[in-house]
Predict the 3D structure of the following.
Amino acid sequence: MQSLHSARTAPFSLDETINVEKPDELSQIVETATYWACFILDCTINSGTYNPRMLSMAEMIKLQVPRAPPASGFLFGFKQKPMTDRSLLLGIEECYEVLVDGFAIYADVMTFVYNDGRKAPGMCAPAECPWMSDSKWAKCRQSLERWRSNMDSCLYYPKHSVASHANTGCRAFVYINLLYYHCVLMLNREYFPFLPKPHAGPQGPTDPPFLEAEAPPRYWENSAKELFEAAAHVATILRDALEWGMTMMTPVPGFCGFSACYMNLYAVHFPNMTAGCSPKAKEHLEMGLAYLEEFRKAWDLGEGWIQTIKNASTLFEEVNSNVDRYRHRSRLDFEVLHQSAHEFRTVDRSEQHTAMIREAEQGDAQSINVGEDNNDALGDSEDLENFDPVALLGDQALWPTWYSASLENESFGSLSLQIP
């Protein structure tokens, strides 16, 4: 990137004997495409991690990098235009340019989520609640919808299927829709309870910090619809891509598949949270697991993601079967699992998880009995805001994600995966 920039800003050699010619059209196209390839790589490095971006769209405009070349640019050439010169909807011919814009928005969404999102200072103030049009969340969502509205409807899924683009070998259609639905998923998931009560319906955060304003009527139901439909679409896109021979075995589709798999698992165990918008959650979960099984053959990342899904499944099953025991548990009690559910890269914490779950079980057995009236009071959102599980149970309340090495199989309802 630096070499390209230097050649652009200082194209003339100090050696006067060297004849510097103006680059031909093909060389200019290659240079422009390389600029945007570096930009996309920078955006993908930021997803699922806490790494700050080195390049922004504003920086690319400042460098006066032309618009990304069309699909046929290398065959027939094209007249390079500045980024600000746009008038028509972008179609399949401009899919590379659509991807560039999509990755820029994707990186902005990831930056919002991984800079603590709702938990960042001031983000729960009334002006920053997600339904407020000037909030950071709303601006991310608006940018995402503007991007989608600026592309031709032939690039919309599920209006158009993966099969309709498979014969052209155009993977861009898959990437474009994965980016869109993954952004929808990540934005809406940020405000959903990490560990809801088994029979609770769609609602906002149940662990601190709490939103300081009340949501408009049916806001959380609409958010649930967006969230779980997005998770379903990611699962079916990846399933269809595999069926049509487009093996999406790169980290970004893998991370999209993992995130969708996690939310479909959530929908299986907490169906009331979906507002009835995920009737095929189990089927979509199986699709996601099948994809991750293929993905882990190519990338070790997949192994960590599958392990996190298994850990989450074990936790969710425990919550549903031991309602009283988990009545007052929240994200604070499972912070490591919460982190693992957001990670682009997963560290093996098996030994730590096993040791800490044993400590937590011992702590639970020794914990004080809370009266029935107090249980009811703590169940109310008003008292929950002041409830501190760490103060109640000590350090043992901070349960991480865990894995029992003694188990040969992990079950997902009636779905069972063999652990090699």
About this structure: Residues 367-420 have pLDDT under 50 and may be disordered.
